Amino acid sequence: MFFMKHVPTTYLKAVLLLFLSTTTFLVKADDCAPKKIDVWVNASFALSGDSINIQNQKYRLIGVEAPQIEIKTKFNTNGQPLAKAAQKNLNRLLANHNTYVGVEYDLSRVDNFNRPYAHLFVKQGEKIVNLQKLVLESGYALAKSTPPNNLHQKCYYQAEAKARRNQLGIWSLQENNPLLNYPIAESSKLNTETVGYHIYRGKILKVMKTGSNYILNMDTTGVRIRKEDWDKFDYDAIKALEGQVIEARGFGFIYQRAMYVKVHSPFAIDRLNPINQ
What we know:
Blueprint: H1 2-5, H2 9-28, E1 39-48, E2 51-54, E3 57-61, E4 64-65, H3 83-96, E5 100-104, E6 117-124, E7 127-130, H4 131-137, E8 142-143, H5 153-165, H6 170-176, E9 184-186, E10 196-203, E11 206-209, E12 213-217, E13 221-226, H7 235-239, E14 245-255, E15 258-262
Parallel strand pairs: 3-6, 9-10, 13-15
Antiparallel strand pairs: 1-2, 1-5, 2-3, 4-8, 5-6, 6-7, 10-14, 11-12, 12-13, 14-15
Helix pairs in contact: 4-5
């Protein structure tokens, strides 16, 4: 109190103004904006709704998962709805920006298949715009968490939420053709077509902890959080999901007639996702 009595009023006003301006900046900080673009290059064309040919290399877009294009090989991969439309949408976005993109790398520069992995940006006049954000806002992809590549994660989930509210792309499909189980797959209605990347929705019947996993069991779907990802989660918050209907996203696979999906970030579970708090 003695200190406050002897501080000039003008000084206090200056400190308050600095605090308010700093707070306003932090609130308005754009999570979609690049931190540091490593290089600007000419892209060629979209190979799918989430991958682009850049200088004869297949670049995957960090933070998005577009519908899978059918692959007819010895190990056949089923196609997902609107896969070709998603590829066409990404080609349109590239063409609208002269196929010139800024490449921003994250902590890991390659994905699990050793393909270059990056956040991409395009120029709109003097403005630099996040390409992943444009893809997600158009409704032709789902947001995806890929630790340790966490740059712009909040931006991507918010962009997806905007497309979902506006019923665009795959969200229109979800609304008008729910029997397709895409992008949302109801745990009680799963079949062999619901493998691959989906949002799995169901009621959590039981939460358990083993030596290697947190386990969230729906009726037919087991959500798994590996021990190496535990530091990102609050187990008490996970335990509190028991009895609630949740949406958990990830790659679903069938094992012993049950569906399993591994999640690596709280963003992947709607009731834990920070943007929904």
